[in-house]
UniProtKB/TrEMBL annotation:
Keywords: Cell outer membrane, Lipoprotein, Membrane, Signal. It holds the Pfam family YfiO. Residues 33-172 form the Outer membrane lipoprotein BamD-like domain. InterPro entries: BamD (IPR017689), BamD-like (IPR039565), TPR-like_helical_dom_sf (IPR011990). NCBIfam families: OM_YfiO (TIGR03302). It comes from the Bacteria. This is Lipoprotein. Transmembrane segments: none annotated. Gene3D superfamilies: Tetratricopeptide repeat domain.
């Protein structure tokens, strides 16, 4: 009985493969379409795609073309070929602006670009493009059943941009003490991050790291800087005052911060250092 089952399975597979090979070779486009659709519905998207690709030119301008082009586009999406899927869905939307599948095709075109967005540590050109495409979809179909998902995808992409900017600023801060001896790049990068992403969930951490950079820069600063406009400037004192002011801003902004104890310790040390200048004056 067991052997009979395996024989039956082998016959079924052979027949199926034979039918597919015949369809690939036949000139009958209707046969290709029907088998391609059957394979698509069975989840065999690679095989279906090959059959669809053979007949797309033949159906151009025909009533069945709309259905074929959607299945053809979606077969690429199911195969995770997101570059081609996005391109084909965009073509579908342009070619069939009155289709009942327009909304779904437009969403899948935008989602294809989302799928192409790389990890935050890599170049984010595709991420910016994906955000633009998803936002265009949301603007075009504000009441779409896909609108909630599209908004969540935008938020995910936006956080990726936040993470990249945050990590760049962090890197500048890490290398400053032992390598560059200059915290200006880190402070400026954190400023840019806080300006560009004011509502970020990383805001507290960014402000704390900026404060820490300002603190380390102030404590280890040289006393004076000679400038063309102002002449001799009391650089260290200015930096200490700026760091103390920013520590107050941090504490008033994040009253329950996990960093509060560290910030208070910084403030005490900054006050002690500033006393030296009040004594001198």
């Amino acid at each position: 009985m067991k052997n009979f089952f395996y024989i039956l399975l082998a016959i079924t597979l052979f027949t199926s493969c034979s039918e597919y090979q015949k369809a690939l070779k036949t000139e009958d486009i209707a046969t290709k379409f029907k088998l391609g659709e059957d394979l698509y519905n069975e989840g065999k998207f690679g095989k279906a795609n090959k059959l669809f690709a053979q007949i797309v030119p033949n159906y151009r301008g025909k009533p069945q073309a709309e259905k074929l082009m959607f299945l053809y586009s979606n077969s690429y999406y199911k195969m995770k070929d997101y570059y081609t899927a996005g391109y084909q869905f965009e073509r579908f939307a342009t070619s069939y602006p009155n289709s009942e599948k327009l909304e779904e095709a437009s969403f899948l075109a935008a989602k294809s670009s989302f799928m192409l967005s790389p990890v935050y540590s890599k170049d984010q050109t595709e991420t910016y493009k994906a955000i633009e495409n998803l936002q265009d979809f949301i603007n075009m179909f504000p009441d779409s059943e896909y609108a909630d998902e599209a908004n969540k995808l935008v938020q995910e992409l936006d956080f990726k941009l936040q993470k990249k900017a945050f990590e760049i600023a962090k890197k500048y801060k890490v290398i400053a003490p032992g390598y560059t001896k200059d915290f200006n790049a880190a402070i400026k990068s954190f400023d840019n991050f806080l300006f560009e992403f004011p509502g970020s969930s990383l805001r507290e951490e960014a402000m704390f790291l900026k404060l820490d950079a300002m603190f380390q820069q102030a404590i280890n600063s040289r006393e004076y800087k000679n400038t063309v406009q102002e002449g001799l400037v009391h650089l260290r004192k200015e930096r200490l005052e700026s760091a103390k002011e920013y520590s107050s801003t941090f504490k008033s902004t994040f009253v329950n911060s996990k960093h509060l104890e560290t910030v208070n310790e910084m403030t005490v040390q900054l006050d002690e250092e500033l006393k030296n200048y009040s004594t001198k004056s």
